[in-house]
Design a protein that fits this description.
By secondary structure, the protein is α+β, with helices and mostly antiparallel strands. The chain is about 45% helix and about 25% strand. The protein has 6 helices and 7 strands, in the order H-H-H-H-E-E-E-E-E-E-E-H-H. A 7-stranded antiparallel β-sheet has the order 4-3-2-1-7-6-5. The longest helix is centred in the first third of the chain and has 25 residues.
Length: about 240
């Protein structure tokens, strides 16, 4: 095995030296470029670097192929969401009285997520770290969001919402809600699938408050159009 390894290096060194002689024989100024080209070839062989085409092929293979079936499922989901948002005032969202929250006369529940956590950033050694404050449920209405925990209740009024963003936390995700009337930023922690749905419903609730429901629904319809086009060329 050791002899084989030495032999491999011998022919590589011989190629490198030979490149210098060939380049010098043609023209002294070509010795360097010939040696460089051969050195690059040897480096590729040593480190087994993939050519550009192979790299692109490898990269594309890692991307999950979207089939007609998976795209169709997305289209169905979006259509169901459009139906829900278009008739949300008549939709049966379980916001039962045992939550301790009484809806206002003109307030309608849009979503309720169970088994969530109230997250708040607190400084520890000069570094802000997310801390679990309480556990409970999170109710989303067209007016506000309300965390109902074991120890406390916290309200997020959508008319005061400045921004919302999702960040990872361990194996879960946190939807941080920044309000103009609150100095500290709190968040709602939940699983990745639930947080995507809750975030979209908050976006719809804000659109309702701004009287932009039509624009919100048009955005979903545009996504459906794009998916329909993608489905025509997707594999079965």
């Amino acid at each position: 095995m050791q002899k084989l390894f030495i032999d491999k290096w011998r022919w590589r060194i011989a190629l490198f030296v030979g490149a210098n002689f060939i380049g010098a024989a043609i023209s002294p100024s070509l010795a360097g470029p010939f040696a460089f080209a051969m050195g690059l070839f040897i480096a590729i062989r040593i480190f087994k670097l993939k050519p550009v085409q192979e790299f692109k092929k490898l990269k594309s293979s890692r991307v999950a192929k979207r089939t007609k079936t998976s795209i169709y499922a997305e289209i169905v989901d979006l259509k169901e969401r459009i139906t829900f948002y278009s008739t949300y005032k008549e939709q049966p969202v379980d916001a039962s009285s045992d939550s301790g929250i009484v809806l206002q006369a003109d307030e309608h529940a849009i979503a309720i997520a169970s088994e969530v956590g109230l997250i708040e950033s607190r400084s520890s050694g000069g570094v802000a770290e997310p801390n679990l404050i309480d556990e409970g449920r999170f109710l989303v209405t067209d007016k506000r969001g309300v965390f109902i925990g074991n120890n406390e209740t916290r309200e997020f009024v959508w008319s005061k919402l400045v921004s919302h963003q999702v960040e990872p936390l361990a194996s879960a995700m946190v939807l941080y809600l920044s309000l103009s009337n609150r100095q500290k930023v709190s968040g709602i922690g939940m699983d990745a699938k639930s947080i995507k749905d809750v975030q979209q419903r908050i976006e719809f609730a804000v659109a309702v408050g701004l009287e932009r429901e039509a624009q919100f629904l048009d955005k979903l319809k545009t996504q459906i159009t794009a998916l329909e086009f993608e489905k025509t060329t997707a594999p079965d």
